[in-house]
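Notebook p. 47: complex prediction with 6-phosphogluconic acid.
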Amino acid sequence: MEKKNIRIFQSVKELAAYSMEWMSLKMKEATKDKFFTVALSGGTTPKQLFEYLAMHGQGTVDWTKILFFWSDERCVAPDNVDSNYHMAKFCLLDKLEIPEEHIFRIHGEAEPIEEAKRYSLILEENVPLRNGLPCFDLILLGLGEDGHTASIFPGNTHLFESARYCESVKHPQTGQQRVTLTGSVINNADNVVFLVTGSGKAEIVSRVLNTAKNDYPASLVCPVHGRIKWFLDQNAASRLI
Ligand code: 6PG
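Predicted complex, structure tokens below:
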């Protein structure tokens, strides 16, 4: 990973502020004549960014031009605290009054295999295609301590070769069913941004970014024609050389 694609911030607040400015620039560049398509990441890390966007983002970008998708979802009801949609709705979407028709959640309550098929059709209908795959303007990703990203876990790296847009998978530890974008779609995005914070991620960040050759799923994120950025707080970056 080239150093220029990694930005390290003193605090999560600084990371969120920079992310907002960076995203609003990308959104302004892209939304002149079309919608800006973003796939939100799950877990707890993006919560801090969403809260910052909700509090400070009102005037920074035309939110009516943004279409919201997810990079993955836990197969739980939309009002379940484990739901990535539930977190984004509460922390961001409701606060910015995003129109329902611009929100394309993964139906965690549905049968996973059927939902992966349904969501693939949703992507085909609402995200411009490039090279025969949905091409998101921006995909936000997190990083698990085992090197997973979205819901592509170690041992599932075949999802980076999948011809499908979405797949249903099982969390290797908890057995929780998930629906995830495939690595093929992730690597077809115009912009991919990893948001990683906290000292608990320092080791895996070092392994993914410092080790030239490794097979962590996150290391296989390498946009074919787009750009990749890592936004880290200093705790998550503390073992980077
Ligand atoms: C999910 C995510 C997953 C997450 C990482 C980091 O649904 O859990 O998509 O890939 O981004 O596990 O999670 P934290 O931000 O909670 O550490």
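Notes: Residues 74 and 178 are 5 Å apart (CA to CA). The radius of gyration is 16 Å.
Next step: compare against the earlier run before touching the bench.
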